[in-house]
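Re: the request from the purification team.
They wanted to know what the chain is likely to look like in 3D before they choose a buffer screen. I agreed to run a prediction and write the result into the notebook, where they can find it.
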Amino acid sequence: MKYDLIMPIAKDDIYTAIDNIPYIRKYLQPDCIIILSNKEIKSKVESLKGIIFFDENEIVPGLTLDAVRNVLKSRGSSPNRSGWYLQQFLKMGYSFISETEYYLAWDADTVPLQEIKLFDIREKPFFTIKTEYHKPYFITIKRVLDIEKKIKGSYIAEHMIFHRGYMRELIEKIEENENNSGLWFEKILRAIDLSDLPNSGFSEFEAYGNYIETYHKETYINRKLNTLRFAKLIFDSLPDQEVCDWLGKNYHMITLENNIQTIDRNRLYLNKFFRKIVHSNVYCEFLTHSIYHINRLRNTSEYN
């Protein structure tokens, strides 16, 4: 199946995204990589071969960062999360200009480490199922789409393959909802509880996944992948090829989220992942690769 890959990119993620592109090409093999961002980013990516840049303020009529900010301000909420909401709406709104039936939304800070199949042999796309649960998401989804949470797990992963027709259908249903005024993205923002608005009040992945499960259940297949979301606790930046190859033996992808704070090395052992490493035969291999935190641990012998 042919598909394009879209990456909404914030300014802080641009260099991670650039380093990530070779891995995306190698392990995902999209027809095209499309970057959605503001004009400041264009000069940094326009020289990259095979990359298409779209101005985030010109993808969907009426959808801009200022438009999102204005709705938040009109509700008496801080506009600090405007960019976070905007990138969700961009993933949804791209369905109206997608030239491929399917398009893949991929987080700029998530690095694939082995080949990842997005469709099965019948050409049905996969959902990657995880375990997150955040109640405000489902309150908002109920208000704008009148559907309930459908599965035990979560559709929130670091990527999602969208069918452009189903996403357009979902947006049209939101537009038909008369409980809130404005364009579809404004209706979503106005449906979020005021207390949740400055934090995390909506998830495009949960909305789309539960919509598909409600109206098009047989068109997707649920699966799980091995992912390391909090790789920022180990690495300050994308590790070298040798380390990536080694990690790829056990993980499909790692994520280098900027909002993950570097923790004190003595607290590292509170993390189950690190305790497993330290008590396993791969500990020495981590040390030889000079991973940022591991090779600075003091008094490691007491833990072996």
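For the purification team: Residues 14-27 form the longest helix (14 residues).
Please add any questions underneath this entry.
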